[in-house]
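re: ur question from yesterday

yeah so i grabbed the chain u mentioned. its 197 aa long if i counted rite. heres the sequnce exactly as i have it in my notes:
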Amino acid sequence: MKESGKRRRGDALSESIYNATIETIKKAGYTNLTFQQIAQAAKTSRTVIYRRWKSKFDLLYEILLYKTGKALGGELIDLIEDTGSLRSDLLQLMTLYQKIFTEVGPEIMNAILFEMGQDNKKMNELKEEAITKNILTMRKLLGFAKARGEKIKEVSDATLTLPFDLIRVENFLRKDDIDKNRLEMLVDEILLPVFRA
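ran it thru and got these structure tokens back, copy pasting raw so excuse formatting
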């Protein structure tokens, strides 16, 4: 039997469904997305998809987690290291966070933004969890600066989420224009004045 004729299972099937979902969103848009369309595009059955995901949001969120893991290979907070200065620490953070957006892609990110605008209890819980993780990541990063003797402003939790909010806005508005120079400008002109005393 040829390899292509074999039944796909596990990771191969999941990846096929993820890719089919992204391609279907590109063609039909997220709001029009159905499990039937995904099944056809992935060359599998609706039953296979319904067995794993209760809703298209559950599938969307799993794709986000999978792509984030692929981009970083671990949790963002664990990857933040002391690079020797607040500027380079912030640039490290912005570069890592941008990698997530690049890997996940605009289709999934825009669908997540759409879900954030809905009255979705699960999405609200996930959003709160993400905000908490982002705040802890920034506290770790600023802790390095304080330990080095850099003067850091005392800021609110809302301000600690600024680097993450900036990347989201940049990706929503600029898409392909976010290179190293753009990230350096965001750090130098926006983030350093906010966090450095």
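noticed a couple things. The chain is about 75% helix and 0% strand. also Residues 154 and 195 are 8 Å apart (CA to CA).
anyway ttyl
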